[in-house]
C-alpha cells in the first residue's frame, strides 16, 4: 500500500506516506483496492467521454463515478468487499459503453482489467494502476496527487448534490474529463498545476450547485440555537454530511417516541426550515469525528453514518449498532442500501435511550449564504466606521493531533473588534465559546458544513464587489485547517480565485514537495500556521 492523501499520514524522515497500515485504520488490502478502483474509474471516465462523443447516453456512468470515487476519500469506506464491488461495477459499465459503440480511448489505462482475478490477486493489480510509483519526478508526482485529491473532494461534493437529485451534465462531464486526464503521462509541471487550479474552478461551480440543491430541498438556513444536552428518551444519532438521509430518518421516526440527534457535520442541519420543523430533532450530540470512539460508545442508541468520517467502531464496542449509508463502509457493520430505516428504528426502540434530561446548553449555527449576503452592507458599514477591524474565516476539518489546539487558541486571542466566520467540523474546538458581539453582529458566525464553503466565498466576493476592490484588499484573512480531500478541493478553489495570504495548518500536505510549496508560497503568499500570537501579530500589524 501507499497512501499520502490526508493530514494524518505518516511523515517521518524514515517514511513518507502510510505504507504498512493507514493511521486511519485502512488496511493494505483496502488501500490497494482503492488504488485499483481509482484506476478503473479513470479508465471508465476516458471511455465515457468517447461514448458521449458517439452520442451514447452516459448519465448512468456520470452518476456512478463520483459516488464510487467518494468511497476512496479518507475515513469513508474501509470495507474491501464493497470496494471490490465498485471495481467490478466500473469495469462492467465500461464494457457496456464499449458494447454500445464507444471507441477505445487513447488512454494508458484504456484496457486495464481485473476480470478473472480472484479476490486475493486483486490488490496486486494496483501495481499496474499506481500513479505515483511510476513517476520518478517527485514534483510531477506531487502535482498529480494534488489534482487527484482535489478532484476526489470535488467528486464528493458533486455526489452530495446528486443525492438531492440535482444533476448537471456539464459539471459531471468536467469531472470525467479531469479524471481521464489525471494519469496523463505527458503532462508537465505547468500543465498539471493549471489542471489543479482548473479543478478549483470546477469545485466552485460544484459547490454552487450543492448550495442550490440544499436550499431548494430544505429552504434557506437561518440562525438556530441548537440544544447540545441529551434529552430523556429513546434516540438515534445521525452523523456525516447527508441532509437527505437525516430528512428520511426524521420522517420515518415521526410519532414513534424517538429523539433524533445530529452529530459532527450534521449540526448545520438544524438551521434548515424543512429539517428544524421536526420537534423530535432534539439536538446535536458529541463533537468532531476523531472523538467517535468515546462519544459513540456512550450514546444509548443506534448511529447512522451517512458520509465521512467514520472511525473503527470496534474499540468502543458499538459495531453492532452503527449503520452505514451511501458510499460509507466498515467491514462487518450493517450497510443500508435502501431508504428504509426500519432496522435502525427497531434498534432504537430496543435500546435504553437517555435515562434523564441533562441541563440545557446550546450552540448557534445557520449563518448560511442568504444570511451572510444580507449582512454584507452592515459589515462594510462597521468596517468604514472602524467598529470592525478585521474578519477571519477560521474553518476546516478537525483531527486528533494536539497541534490543532492552535485554532481554539487563535479564536480565543482574536481581538474583540474582529468577526470570526467558521465552517466544517474544526469548529467544535471553539463553537461553544461565548464571544459576544461586535457592532450588533455575533462575533462568531457558523456558516455550516465544509459543504457550505461556497457561502463564505460568496460573502467575500460580494464584499469586494460592494467595496469596489479585490478580495485580497478586504480586511479578511482565511485561517484553514485541513484534514482530508474535500479540504484540498476547497483550497484549490481559493487558490484558483487568487486568494492570497491564507494560513493553513496544522501541517502542509505531505504530498507537496519543497519545490511545490515554494511555488505556492511565492505565488499566493501561503503561510503555514505558527503560533496564534505570531500569526495574529503578522495579520493585524
Ligand atoms: Fe494514511 Fe490518511 Fe491514507 Fe489513511 S487516508 S492511509 S491515514 S494517508
Ligand atoms: Fe470533517 Fe471529516 Fe473534513 Fe466536512 S467530517 S470537514 S474531516
From TrEMBL:
Gene3D superfamilies registered for this protein in UniProt: 1.20.1270.20, 3.40.50.2030
Pfam family, one: Prismane
EC number: 1.7.99.1
Cofactor: record remark: Binds 1 [4Fe-4S] cluster.
Binding site for hybrid [4Fe-2O-2S] cluster: 241, 265, 309, 397, 425, 450, 484, 486
Subcellular location: Cytoplasm
Transcription regulation is among the record's keywords: no
Reported cofactor(s): [4Fe-4S] cluster; hybrid [4Fe-2O-2S] cluster
Binding-site residues for [4Fe-4S] cluster, renumbered to this chain: 3, 6, 18, 24
Recorded catalytic activity of this chain's protein: A + NH4(+) + H2O = hydroxylamine + AH2 + H(+)
Enzyme class: oxidoreductase
Function: Catalyzes the reduction of hydroxylamine to form NH(3) and H(2)O.
Record family assignment: Belongs to the HCP family.
Protein's name in the database: Hydroxylamine reductase
Gene: hcp
Amino acid at each position: 500500500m501507499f497512501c499520502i492523501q490526508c493530514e494524518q499520514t505518516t511523515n517521518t524522515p524514515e517514511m513518507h506516506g502510510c505504507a504498512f497500515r493507514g493511521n486511519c485504520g485502512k488496511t493494505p488490502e483496502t488501500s490497494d483496492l482503492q488504488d485499483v478502483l481509482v484506476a478503473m474509474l479513470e479508465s471508465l471516465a476516458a471511455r465515457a467521454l468517447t461514448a458521449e462523443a458517439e452520442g451514447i447516453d452516459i448519465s448512468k456512468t456520470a452518476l456512478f463515478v463520483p459516488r464510487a470515487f467518494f468511497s476512496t476519500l479518507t475515513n469513508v469506506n474501509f470495507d474491501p468487499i464493497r470496494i471490490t464491488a465498485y471495481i467490478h461495477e466500473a469495469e462492467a459499465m465500461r464494457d457496456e459503453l464499449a458494447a454500445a459503440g464507444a471507441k477505445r480511448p487513447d488512454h494508458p489505462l484504456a484496457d486495464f482489467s481485473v476480470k478473472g482475478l480472484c479476490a486475493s490477486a486483486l490488490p496486486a493489480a494496483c501495481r499496474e494502476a499506481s500513479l505515483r510509483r511510476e513517476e520518478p519526478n517527485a514534483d510531477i508526482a506531487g502535482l498529480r496527487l494534488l489534482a487527484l485529491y482535489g478532484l476526489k473532494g470535488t467528486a464528493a461534493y458533486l455526489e452530495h448534490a446528486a443525492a438531492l437529485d440535482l444533476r448537471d451534465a456539464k459539471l459531471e462531464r468536467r469531472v470525467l474529463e479531469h479524471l481521464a486526464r489525471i494519469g496523463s503521462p505527458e503532462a508537465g509541471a505547468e500543465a498539471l498545476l493549471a489542471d489543479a487550479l482548473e479543478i478549483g474552478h470546477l469545485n466552485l461551480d460544484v459547490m454552487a450547485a450543492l448550495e442550490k440543491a440544499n436550499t431548494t430541498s430544505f429552504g434557506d438556513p437561518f440562525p438556530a440555537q441548537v440544544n447540545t444536552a441529551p434529552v430523556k428518551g429513546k434516540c438515534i444519532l445521525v452523523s456525516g454530511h447527508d441532509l437527505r438521509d437525516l430528512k428520511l430518518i426524521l420522517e420515518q421516526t415521526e410519532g414513534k417516541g424517538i429523539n433524533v440527534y445530529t452529530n459532527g457535520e450534521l449540526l448545520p442541519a438544524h438551521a434548515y426550515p424543512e429539517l428544524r420543523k421536526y420537534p423530535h430533532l432534539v439536538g446535536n450530540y458529541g463533537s468532531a469525528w476523531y472523538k467517535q470512539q468515546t462519544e459513540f460508545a456512550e450514546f444509548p442508541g443506534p448511529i447512522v453514518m451517512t458520509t465521512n468520517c467514520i472511525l473503527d467502531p470496534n474499540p468502543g464496542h458499538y459495531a453492532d449498532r452503527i449503520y452505514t449509508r451511501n458510499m460509507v463502509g466498515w467491514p462487518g457493520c450493517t450497510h443500508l442500501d435502501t431508504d428504509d430505516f426500519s432496522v435502525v428504528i427497531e434498534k432504537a426502540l430496543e435500546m435504553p435511550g437517555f435515562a434523564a434530561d441533562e441541563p440545557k446548553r446550546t450552540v448557534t449555527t445557520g449563518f448560511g449564504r442568504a444570511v451572510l449576503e444580507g449582512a454584507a452592507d452592515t459589515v462594510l458599514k462597521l468596517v468604514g466606521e472602524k467598529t470592525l477591524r478585521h474578519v477571519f474565516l477560521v474553518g476546516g476539518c478537525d483531527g486528533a493531533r494536539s497541534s490543532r489546539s492552535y485554532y481554539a487558541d487563535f479564536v480565543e486571542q482574536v481581538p474583540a473588534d474582529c468577526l470570526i466566520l467558521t465552517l466544517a467540523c474544526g469548529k467544535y474546538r471553539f463553537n461553544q465559546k461565548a464571544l459576544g458581539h461586535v457592532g450588533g453582529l455575533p462575533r462568531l458566525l457558523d456558516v455550516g458544513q465544509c459543504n457550505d464553503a461556497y457561502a463564505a466565498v460568496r460573502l467575500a466576493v460580494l464584499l469586494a464587489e460592494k467595496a469596489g476592490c479585490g478580495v485580497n484588499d478586504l480586511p479578511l484573512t482565511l485561517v484553514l485547517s485541513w484534514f482530508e480531500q474535500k479540504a484540498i478541493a476547497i483550497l484549490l478553489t481559493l487558490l484558483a480565485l487568487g486568494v492570497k495570504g491564507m494560513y493553513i495548518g496544522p501541517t502542509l500536505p505531505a504530498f507537496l514537495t519543497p519545490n511545490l510549496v515554494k511555488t505556492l508560497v511565492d505565488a499566493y503568499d501561503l503561510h503555514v500556521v505558527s503560533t496564534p500570537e505570531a500569526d495574529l501579530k503578522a495579520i493585524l500589524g
